[in-house]
Amino acid sequence: MIDVKALLEEMKASPFEVVEVRAPHTGIVEFVVSEPGAQVHGTTGVWNEKPGTLLAKLGREHNAKAILAPLKGEVEKVFLEHSGRFVEAGTTLFTLRHYLTKDEVISAILKKTLHLFHAPEQAKYYFTPEIDTKVKASGCKCVRVREGMDLFIVSRMKRETPLAYAGPEGLIYAVYFQHNESVAAGEPLIGVCPEELLPVIQEVVNRVQGEWEER
Amino acid sequence: MDIEKRIQGLRDRLQYIQDIFGAKENANIQLLQSKLNDFLEREQTASQSEKSKQLSALEDLFEFLERKLERDLTPMDKVRIVRHPQRICLKDILENVYDNYTELGGQDEYNIDPSMIIARAYITRRVGGKVYNQPVMVIGQEKGHGQEFRNGGSVKPWGNAKALHYMKVAETENIPIHTYVFTPGAFPIEDNPGAAQQIARNLYEMAGLTVPVITCISEGGSGGAEAIALADHRMMFSHGYYSVISPEGAAAIEGRLRSGERATPELIESCARKLKMTAEDNRVMGYVDQILGEPALGARPNHYDFFKLLRQEVIRATDSVVLNVKGWRFFRAMTLSSRRARKKGKSAEDIYVRWSLSSRAKERLVWRRYQRFRRMSLKAYMDVTPFSERANNVLGELWWDIYSFFKYDFMRKHQKKISGVMEEIGGEIQVVKDKFSAPLEWMRKLAGAGSTEAVVTETEKSLTELSCWDEGSCELGNGSYYVSPQAREDRAVTCPNAATHGCVDLWAPDLFGDFAGVCSTCGHHFRMEYQWYLHNVFDQESIYEFSRNIESGNPLSFDGLDAKLEQAKAKTGKKCACTTFEARIHGVNCVVAMLMADFRGGSVGAAEGEKFIRAAERARKKHYPFIAYVHGTAGIRIQEGVNGVIQMPRCTMAVRRYIEAGGLYLVLYDTNSYAGPVASFLGCSPYQFAVRSANIGFAGRGVIKETTGLDIPPNYHDVHQALSRGHVQGIWDRREIRKNLHQALLTMGGRNLYYR
C-alpha cells in the first residue's frame, strides 16, 4: 500500500515545481527581468488572451521575439551571463519556482495513488447506461469496478462499441472525461482506488484543502 | 393629504433640478432649497389655510426660477435631462398623444426586445361632423421610468429587426409610421442578426419605404438612432440631443483615455458643447426640420400641454408630408403652412387628410426623401474644384446621360428592330463595297502582294518566342511593381500563429514582397498598404481618379481637428479618407470607392460621404458595377458630429438608388472595419466579402466592455466569425482578390447588369 501521508509530507517539503525557461531558438538575449525573486505570472484571461510576464527578448535577424513566463511563480535564477550574447536553442535562461496550488497537489497525489485507466484510442467516451445512472444518482465513488466489467461505450462517428475495464478492483474516485467531448488516445478516463485506501485518500485530500497554503 | 402631495411634488421638482445641474453651484437652486426647508420647518405650526397659501407662493417661485434656470442650461445639462428617469418616454407618448394603441411584438419584459416598442395606434379626428380613425404604426425605443429590463433604450439587433418587420407591415397596410428616438445608442453585440448589419438593413429598407415616416428625436445616439430615424420629416424635442457619440465617449477619445480611466467633468462638458448636439444646433445645420418647445427644464409625464402640442405637430407633419406628394392638396396645404391659421387657433386636426398614398404619390415620396437627404451636409466639406473642371464634369455627365439613354434604354427597347435594320443596311453596303473594290483586288493580285506575310510573321513569332504554357501565367499583373515599405527592412517576422501552427519566421522582403503579406505556413494575412491592392487588383494603368478635389473640413470648428487633418493630408497625400476611381479588372469596367485606414483611421465624414455618393451616382450613370473596397474604417469621424452621422442614411440611399437601377454593388473588407459605415452603406450590400486579414464589427472591445460590461473573446470580430454569422458571404485570400473579383463581377452580374 502506498503511504499517502509520506507523499504529502514530501510535497510539503518542497511545495513548488521548478520550471526552466529555455531559448526557443538561437539568438541574442536581452533580459527584461534580471532580478531573482521577481514575481511573474503566466497566461491568463478567460480565453488565455492575456500573455504572461515578459521575461526576455530573443533577437534573431532583427526580430526580437518575446520570451514570456509560462506559469505563475517567482524567478529563482537568472542566467545573466547570457545577457547580450548569442545563445543556442535550448539554453536555459531562467529557472522559475512555481508554487503548487491545492488542485495541483491533489491531482499529483491522486495520479500517484490511483490506478488510472487510459483511453485506448481517440474517441468520445460514455459510461454504460446503468453505470451512468448510478454515477448521476449517487456519485462516482459508489461505483465498484472490477476486471472485465463493461464500463464504457466508445463512440467514434456514431459507431459505438463497448469497452471493458481492466485493472484492479476498486471504486471510481475521479472521472477525467467530459460528456460529449473527444478524448485523445492515452489520456486517463477514470482513476480507481481500492476500497480500503479510500478513507486515507479522502483524509489527505481534506488535509490539503484545509492546510495547504497557496502562494 | 392634498398638501402633503404638493409638498412631495415640490421635493421631486427640487431633486430633479439638482440632478440636472449636477455638482454645479447655483444660487437659484440654493434659494429654492432654503425656501423649501424654511417652509418645512414652519409647516408644523402653521394652520391649514396658511400652509396652502405659502405652498402656492412656493410653487410660483419654483416656476419662476425653473424658467430662469432654463436659460442657464448647457448642452451637458440637456444630456442629463434626457437621461433622467423622469423624462417622458414612449409609453407616455402612446398614452397621451394617440387615441388608442395595441403593443406588438411583446409587452414589457415579455418581449423580443423590451427596449424597442412597436404599437399599432390610431388618431381620431372629427372634421365636418364626421369621425375619422387614422391608423399609424408607432415605433420607438423605450427607456421606461427606471425599468431595468428596458436596457436604457439600448436596442439589441433583434429589436431593430422587429422594428424593420413592422415597418414593412405598415408599408403593406399603407399607413404612416411615426418613430420616436429615445436611445443612447445600439447595444453593441454581433449576435445574429448583428448590431451593425441590422442597422444597415433598416436603413436600406427605410430608404425605399413607400409610406410617410415622421421622426421625433429626444435622445439620438448615433447608429441606434439612425436605425429608425431615416424620415421624411424630423422633429426634435427642444431639450433633446442628437449626436454621433455620447459626450463621455467623445471625451474618452479626445482625452486618449485607457480603459478604466474616467474623463474629467470639464472635458465631458466641453465635448458636449463642441459636438453641437442640441436641437438648435441640429436645426441650424439642417438635420432636423422642426423643434418642439418643451416646458422649462424638459418635459416630464405630467406636462399634458406638451403632449397636446406633440399630437398637433405630429399630425401636422404627417399631413404636410402626405400633401406634398399628393395631387389634391391646394387649400389644405395652404392652411397647414399658414401661420395666421395657427394663430387663430386652427389646429391640424381640423383638416382631414387621407394618409394612404397612391402608387404615383409613393414614387414621389421616395424621390423627395432621397433629394432631401442628398441636399444635407453639402456645406460640411470643402470642394476646391476649379470652375472649368466643374463645367467639364457637368458636360461629361450630360453626355453619359444621353449615351446611356441610347445604349441601354432606347437600344434595349428597340433592339430587334434596330439590329434588323442594321443588318439590312450592312448587307447593302457590302454589295456596293464588293463592286467598287473588285478592280483594286485584281490589281493587288497582279502585284503579288497577299496576306501570307502576316501569317509568316505570326508563325515565326510562335516558333521563336517562349510560349505561355498556363493560362494567365504570362500575365505580369499590373506591370508596375509595387514594393511595400515593410519589404524594405532587413528583418525576420514572426507569425502570430507560430505557437499553434508551427510557422517559421519569414524574412520581411520575402513576406511583404513576394508572398503578398501572407504567412507561407498558416496563411495568416499581415496587413498590407492600400497601394498594394491598387497595383495588384486592377488592370495596368486603368485607374482614373475622380472627385479628387473634395476635401475633408472641420464643419464644427472642433479644437485640434484642423491640425490632425493637415497631418493626415501631409502623410497620405490625399485630401480625405475616401478615394474614388474608375478602373478595370480583366477588361471589365467598374467604379471603386476606397476607404483608407491611413487617413484618420478611414473615418467617414461629410467629404468621404459625398465622394461615396458621387461614385455611386457615376456608376449608375455609366452602368458600371460599383465596388466599395474598405482598406479600413474606424467609423464615423466624431469631430464632425451629426455631419458625419448623416452620411449613414445619405450614402445608403445613394446605394439603394444604384442597386434599384440594376447595378451590382460589392463590398470588400480588409483590415479593420467598424461602426457607422458597416452599419449603413457597407453593411447593406447583398454581396460583402472580406480578405482574410479583416475584422468586422459594430463596436470595438473597449466600447463593448464599457457599455455592456461584457468581456468578449479575442476572435469576436474575426472575419471567420463574421462569416459564420452570415455578415459576409466569403473570405478571400489576398493573392486571389483579382481573380475572385473578376469572377464575382461575371457571376453576380446577372442579366439586369449592363457593365459590358
Automatic annotation (TrEMBL), chain A:
<protein>
    <submittedName>
        <fullName>Biotin carboxyl carrier protein</fullName>
    </submittedName>
</protein>
Automatic annotation (TrEMBL), chain B:
<keyword id="KW-0444">Lipid biosynthesis</keyword>
<keyword id="KW-0275">Fatty acid biosynthesis</keyword>
<comment type="function">
    <text>Component of the acetyl coenzyme A carboxylase (ACC) complex. Biotin carboxylase (BC) catalyzes the carboxylation of biotin on its carrier protein (BCCP) and then the CO(2) group is transferred by the transcarboxylase to acetyl-CoA to form malonyl-CoA.</text>
</comment>
<comment type="similarity">
    <text>In the C-terminal section; belongs to the AccA family.</text>
</comment>
<dbReference type="GO" id="GO:0016743">
    <property type="term" value="F:carboxyl- or carbamoyltransferase activity"/>
</dbReference>
<dbReference type="InterPro" id="IPR011762">
    <property type="entry name" value="COA_CT_N"/>
</dbReference>
<dbReference type="GO" id="GO:0009317">
    <property type="term" value="C:acetyl-CoA carboxylase complex"/>
</dbReference>
<keyword id="KW-0443">Lipid metabolism</keyword>
<dbReference type="GO" id="GO:0005524">
    <property type="term" value="F:ATP binding"/>
</dbReference>
<feature type="domain" description="CoA carboxyltransferase C-terminal">
    <location>
        <begin position="57"/>
        <end position="320"/>
    </location>
</feature>
<protein>
    <recommendedName>
        <fullName>Acetyl-coenzyme A carboxylase carboxyl transferase subunits beta/alpha</fullName>
        <ecNumber>2.1.3.15</ecNumber>
    </recommendedName>
</protein>
<comment type="pathway">
    <text>Lipid metabolism; malonyl-CoA biosynthesis; malonyl-CoA from acetyl-CoA: step 1/1.</text>
</comment>
<comment type="similarity">
    <text>In the N-terminal section; belongs to the AccD/PCCB family.</text>
</comment>
<keyword id="KW-0276">Fatty acid metabolism</keyword>
<dbReference type="GO" id="GO:0003989">
    <property type="term" value="F:acetyl-CoA carboxylase activity"/>
</dbReference>
<keyword id="KW-0963">Cytoplasm</keyword>
<dbReference type="InterPro" id="IPR034733">
    <property type="entry name" value="AcCoA_carboxyl_beta"/>
</dbReference>
<dbReference type="Pfam" id="PF01039">
    <property type="entry name" value="Carboxyl_trans"/>
</dbReference>
<keyword id="KW-0067">ATP-binding</keyword>
<keyword id="KW-0547">Nucleotide-binding</keyword>
<dbReference type="InterPro" id="IPR029045">
    <property type="entry name" value="ClpP/crotonase-like_dom_sf"/>
</dbReference>
<dbReference type="Pfam" id="PF03255">
    <property type="entry name" value="ACCA"/>
</dbReference>
